[in-house]
Design a protein that fits this description.
mainly alpha
Length: about 280
């Protein structure tokens, strides 16, 4: 595999390529996520029972990203959803890395709405809670996230701290900035669209949309699938960043004469490995 070629590709470019090459798989993931959302709404207090399904679908999305970048071709749909030993390990790793951020998010939200703290501005408080949980998530991913890539590619997951030290700032800055820019661009596009319509036109449009969704289940399902595809695309950005960080860390260790088994296969013991792969 030409890892130097991978390095020359931008994160966004690789993300678009992964998304388009595996679009059938991601459509299935989006449909599954939509049904999971409906199930959570119907289960009420038992909605937590659907959480494993959401993490399974997220694990599939990330694994497909890692494999597509390194192999250079799409992952077969049946292979993507196959419950293998590797996917089970990946699932528990991914769940573990998300546990603390999710707990922060739930605890913060419950605290806000329980009346334990004054709700001066609920929207701002919720954004702060969400921001803290996402920061913790990205810190975990920057330090330990390459172990996910190692699991997907058959590498050494136990070297995650060593890799994390090598690529921490590389990963963290990109994890914080690149998905945020896409979210801001999407939000900015909606803001511009509604600003052109004016307050009255925007209200009428939103009202019509709400009644369309409420009155037609099919419209609601299709809208939810579309939103899920956008979320999948944003998730892919993180998967691409972690994959590139994994390759960088492996190349660095190979250049230092201490490659892992995966690095030995990819680079051998090459003092120029890091320079060649990440110029």
């Amino acid at each position: 595999m030409d890892y130097a070629k991978i390095n020359r590709r931008s994160v966004y470019g690789l993300t678009i390529e992964v998304f388009l090459r595996n679009l059938p798989t991601f459509v299935i993931v989006a449909i599954g996520s939509a049904f999971a959302s409906f199930a959570q709404a119907m289960l009420g207090p038992f909605s937590f029972m659907v959480i494993p399904v959401s993490f399974y679908l997220s694990s599939v999305t990330m694994i497909v990203t890692h494999k597509t970048i390194v192999t250079g071709h799409a992952v077969q749909t049946d292979e993507a959803f196959e419950i293998t030993d590797m996917l089970k390990i990946y699932f528990w790793q991914y769940l573990g890395m998300n546990a603390i951020p999710v707990i922060i998010m739930f605890a913060g939200t419950i605290t806000l709405f329980s009346g334990a703290v004054p709700m001066q501005d609920a929207g701002v408080d919720l954004l702060i809670v969400f921001g803290i949980s996402m920061l913790v998530y990205n810190l975990f991913m920057a330090l330990f996230g390459t172990s996910l890539v190692a699991t997907a590619l058959g590498g050494d997951g136990m070297m995650m701290v060593t890799r994390g030290r090598i690529t921490f700032w590389y990963s963290l800055i990109r994890l914080l900035v690149l998905p945020t820019l896409v979210i801001a661009a999407i939000g900015g596009g909606f803001w511009f669209y509604f600003s052109q319509m004016g307050a009255e036109g925007s209200t009428q449009w939103l009202t019509a949309l709400i009644f369309s969704v409420i009155g037609n289940l099919w419209n609601g399902v299709m809208m939810l699938i579309g939103m899920n595809l956008m979320l999948i695309f944003i998730t892919l950005i993180s998967g691409v960043i972690l994959t590139k960080a994994f390759i960088l860390a492996e190349a660095t260790m190979a250049a230092q004469g201490e490659p892992t088994n995966w690095g030995q296969r990819a680079f051998g013991i090459d003092p120029d490995a890091r320079r060649v792969v990440f110029k």
